[in-house]
Amino acid sequence: MKEIDGGICAVRGVRAGGIKSGKMGLAVIIADGSAAGLFTRNKVIAAPNIITRERLQKCGHLGAIIANSGNANAFTGEKGLADAKEMAYLLSKETGVAEELIAVASTGVIGRKLEVGWIREHAGEVIRSLSSSPEGSNAAAHAIMTTDTVLKESAVELDSGVRIGGIAKGSGMIEPDMGTMLAFIYTDADLSADVLDSCLRIAVDKTFNMVVVDGDTSTNDMVLLTATASASIEPTIEEFQTGLNHVLTYLAKKIARDGEGATKLIEARVMGAGTDNDARLVAKTIVRSSLVKSAVFGKDPNWGRVVAAIGYSGAIVEQEKISLSFASGEDIVHLVGRGVILDPTSNATNALKNIMEKEEIVIMVDLGVGNKNATAWGCDLTYEYIRINAEYTT
């Protein structure tokens, strides 16, 4: 497997385009094939999610995606459902793709009427810009950004020749399962909807569901996976799963690193848990902790906050078996070994201070009670996060 350029347009059979004007954006992706999707677990579900989920459940196939940013079309009642359907109708009329094969996605402010007029006005422009070049993927990725500060796209080519590419957006309202995130993943493998669904669930559980920015769950989370079969290759499930995991891990880390106002990426690696669920609980509790996140922002070597988070995570923990280390790049400091503070002097504190200065910090925990592992990603909690969300609609 090797990483390649081009995002979703590295995948054979995919054309994409988009525009961004201020807070408003519109993206279109044309690619036909078997498909699967996962959606928000929030009980308040945005209109486009309702429409897209129903269509996928009915036929397991997609021909196109139309997505807007700037307005979530969530908590908008029957009018919101009608507006989501009109987005699909506009794309169908312009491209000939059947309406029932068009997925609709939205992201932005909740509880405001969708500006369908703006979408209607710009749909033709986006459709005329559709391209199978890297620029097409780039334009679509840019169009779906809200408070994101960087594009999020990734692509790989497997040893079999199959390609997998993805774009995503996400910066705030992230966790506990996915986040205010949209992710559109494509492959040119020849795989059924059932296989795609199984692989997507495994990959999302290991990646997007292990990202925490702020602990809020969006109304609009959506991850779609489409197989165009344009490569005429049916890879092994194991090879495809490895490639899909790689693409989604890359995108998940980009989302965590680009958390609203973030200056640092936090990676929590938990080993030695008694169960998979316990490993996940501890990893996510660490990156969710406001005190840990604040310490990372302030470069404060207050590692006791991590131990406290481990203890209240809900996992089975025996404090006399806990080991804890911090690392960044090649620098590492071992702080606790099997419940014993390894170096109570200023040497360990100074070493930790140096690591806390870095932009990417890895927190490694060994619970010492089993052999289950998990990794979660998050970011620091900054003054800028408060400003962004205090002024989100103003």
3D architecture notes:
The protein is an alpha+beta fold and 394 residues long. It has 2 domains: 256 residues, L-amino peptidase D-ALA esterase/amidase, CATH 3.60.70.12; 126 residues, Ubiquitin-like (UB roll) (Roll), CATH 3.10.20.340. It has 11 helices and 16 strands. Strands 1, 2, 3, 4, 5, 6, 7, 8 and 10 form a 9-stranded mixed sheet that branches. The protein has a 7-stranded mixed sheet with strand order 9-16-11-15-12-13-14. Helix 7 packs across helix 9. The longest helix is centred in the middle third of the chain and has 21 residues. It is globular and about 70 Å long. The chain starts with a strand and ends with a helix.
Features:
394 residues; alpha+beta; L-amino peptidase D-ALA esterase/amidase; Ubiquitin-like (UB roll); 2 domains; 9-stranded mixed beta sheet; 7-stranded mixed beta sheet; 11 helices; 16 strands; 36% helix; globular
Beta-strand segment tally: 16
Structural class: alpha+beta
Please work out how many helical segments DSSP would assign.
11
- On the 0 to 100 scale, the average pLDDT is 93
Helix content: 25-40%
Question: What would the principal axes of the Cα set say about the shape?
Answer: globular
How many domains make up the 3D coordinates?
A: 2
Proportion of residues in extended strands:
25-35%
Query: What kind of sheet is the major sheet?
Result: 9 strands, mixed
The H-level CATH homologous superfamily of the largest domain, spelled out, is L-amino peptidase D-ALA esterase/amidase
Distance between the termini: 46 Å
Instruction: Kindly identify the CATH topology of the largest domain.
Output: L-amino peptidase D-ALA esterase/amidase
CATH class of the largest domain: Alpha Beta
Q: SSE order, as H and E?
A: EEEHEHEHHEEEHEEHEHHHEEEHEEH
Poorly predicted tracts of residues: 173-179
